[in-house]
């Protein structure tokens, strides 16, 4: 199965009805492509959203089969998150739980992370070998 891990920039862009992001996501769901939404990434995106936008995004995640919310569901996933945070703290100058959780999920499924901003990922890709793709018309 083909899939992508969504970062907070994609979730925010979708909530603000960015035409490229909306059309790319819906176009790919029609091709049976799956998307994983790490819970920490969703939380980070929701910080900048209105209550109505949050409700819309949550409803979409709950009702679209192509979208799967990924919690930290085991101690091994928590340990992996801690390792990613430890490896990236020096580059990011802070604990970026949203990015770290996206990395954990991307490794779990062996899927790339999709973003609207490669700049957001530059500090992390300097220290971790991860596949991050910028969404334009499609992350492919």
Automatic annotation (TrEMBL):
Record-given protein name: PIN domain-containing protein
Upper lineage: Bacteria, Bacillati, Actinomycetota, Actinomycetes, Mycobacteriales
């Amino acid at each position: 199965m083909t899939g992508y891990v969504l970062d907070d920039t994609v979730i925010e862009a979708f909530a603000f009805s960015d035409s490229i992001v909306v059309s790319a996501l819906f176009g790919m769901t029609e091709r049976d492509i799956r998307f994983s939404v790490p819970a920490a990434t969703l939380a980070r995106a929701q910080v900048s959203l209105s209550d109505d936008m949050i409700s819309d995004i949550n409803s979409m995640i709950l009702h679209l089969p192509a979208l799967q919310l990924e919690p930290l569901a085991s101690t091994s996933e928590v340990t992996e998150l801690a390792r990613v945070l430890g490896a990236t703290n020096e580059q990011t100058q802070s604990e970026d739980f949203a990015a770290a959780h996206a990395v954990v999920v991307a490794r779990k499924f062996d899927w790339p992370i999709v973003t609207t901003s490669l700049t957001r990922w530059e500090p992390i890709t300097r220290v971790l070998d991860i596949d991050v793709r910028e969404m334009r018309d499609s992350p492919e």
